[in-house]
Write a structure and sequence with these properties.
Length: about 450
């Protein structure tokens, strides 16, 4: 099988390739094509992959190209992890929002809207090229904002595009570990949108073990989300929120932490990865060693501003393991290509799963996956507090999609103004003005 990775010069591509190296079953991926607009980054990542493959006799063959159509032809799976505007764009998204006193995070609030407005037109173009050149391919989307971008691509590709995120998987594994359960054997009741969901139950042998965790003050404070939100708030909710809900529940504190930090997360990653790719420009650099060193620092500093706002200090070693988006991607490909039935938390079209949303709305829930794709599992209704956030944010996503399709600046303003974390229409107008002035990729927005 051929796997095409869009954003193939991205820093996390070696995680995906590493997962492929461990798969030796029949029907595995044997060819990987990396696509990126930056030839230098492509060469750097190809060197890391070559080091990974050393000594592995059946390692998938790797090729690289800057031509999108060439990359897509013959693909069985397309993994999309692009970043429109690069990390410089992310840093600008954060800086502009924080100057207005609102959150500038990559996927949440004003920063997420700006990123979505830049990314949706590109993702839609990619979806059309896939439909033309590789109509039988399955697209696995990791491009942020993942739910929004998956919904944009689904308007072209239907159910042949599936979004993935490692946050809910990582949350489920941490909760299972605290409860002494095998995360691979537990049923995780998780529901919401991408970066806006709640773990409502964890069933082992048919019994929900989450109430036992909620009743245990010490256990609640012993893992990442428990420290971020605090045991009292988790008991009030009767659920464990995705870590990204910290931006909603503790917005004032998060914005303050971001504004007083030496630099934003985007600026940090821009500088860190810039140093990595510069180092990789030297032919004597040990590629895999340099990559591992950079990755370790990246993971340790994840959501550092939020932990500072919550007063919880550095991440514990056991919380450093994410859900492993590369493992989710591999499990999804195996299930589809080999009809190995499994259950995964994915971003897919709603159908009738959540009655408060229409059938085409992309949601993040457990799905049954096999050769026919991913189908959402029936879910209990959302509580009213969750309904409010989910429907409000989905309304924002729809305005982003409408603005990207129409080029309407007024619709873009509406998207910002309707977001729960943007507190004024006047602020929304200033944000649109600032973002369009900063980003060439938003030149399509007109009056």
């Amino acid at each position: 099988m051929k796997l095409t990775i869009l954003g193939g010069g991205g820093f996390r591509v070696p995680l995906v390739y590493g997962a492929l190296l461990g798969d030796h079953a029949e029907g595995r991926v044997t060819r990987v094509t990396l696509h990126d607009l930056d030839g230098g980054r492509l060469s750097a990542v190809a060197r890391v992959l070559a080091d990974q493959a050393e000594g592995v006799p059946d390692a998938p063959e790797v090729t690289a190209t800057t031509d999108l159509d060439e990359a897509l032809r013959g693909a069985d799976f397309v993994f999309s992890a692009i970043r429109v505007g690069g990390l410089e764009g992310r840093a600008a998204d954060e800086r502009i929002a924080l100057a207005e006193g609102v959150l500038g995070q990559e996927t949440v609030g004003a920063g997420g809207i700006a990123y979505g407005l830049r990314t949706v037109p590109v993702a839609t173009h990619i979806a059309r090229r896939v439909a033309e050149l590789a109509p039988d391919a399955w697209v696995i989307n990791f491009t942020n904002p993942a739910g929004l971008v998956t919904e944009a691509m689904s308007r072209v590709l239907g159910d042949r595009v599936v979004g993935i995120c490692d946050s809910p998987v990582g949350l489920g594994r941490r909760v299972a570990r605290i409860l002494g359960a095998d995360p691979d054997e537990a049923w995780i009741d998780y529901v919401g949108l991408n970066h806006l969901g709640w773990l409502r139950g964890l069933r082992v042998g048919g019994r929900d073990e989450l109430p036992r965790l909620l009743a245990d003050e010490k256990a609640l404070g012993s893992f990442e989300e428990g420290r971020l939100f605090g045991p009292e708030w988790l008991r009030s909710l009767g659920a464990i929120p995705n870590e990204y809900l910290h931006y909603y529940y503790f917005n004032r504190e998060a914005v303050h932490a971001y504004r007083t930090a030496g630099r934003t997360r985007g600026a940090y990653l821009r500088d860190q990865q810039g140093a990595f790719y510069a180092e990789m420009g030297r032919p004597d650099t040990p590629a895999l060693v340099a990559w591992h060193r950079t990755l370790a620092d990246r993971e340790a500093t994840y959501m550092a501003a939020n932990r500072e706002a919550a007063g919880v200090g550095e991440r514990d070693e056991e919380d450093l393991e994410s859900g492993g988006y590369e493992k989710v991607a591999l499990a999804l490909m195996r299930a589809v290509a080999r009809d190995e039935r499994t259950t995964l938390i994915l971003n897919v079209r709603n159908g009738t799963t959540l009655s408060v949303l229409d059938a085409d709305a992309v949601i993040e829930v457990p799905c049954l996956v096999d050769a026919n794709g991913a189908r959402p599992v029936a879910a209990a209704p959302l509580p009213y507090h969750a309904v409010g956030l989910v429907t409000a944010v989905k309304a924002v996503e729809r305005e982003v999609l409408a603005a990207a399709e129409s080029g309407s600046r007024e619709t873009a303003v509406k998207a910002f103004a309707l977001h729960p974390l943007v507190d004024s229409v006047a602020v929304a107008r200033r944000l649109v003005a600032a973002y369009t002035a900063e980003h060439p990729g938003l030149a399509y927005l007109r009056g």
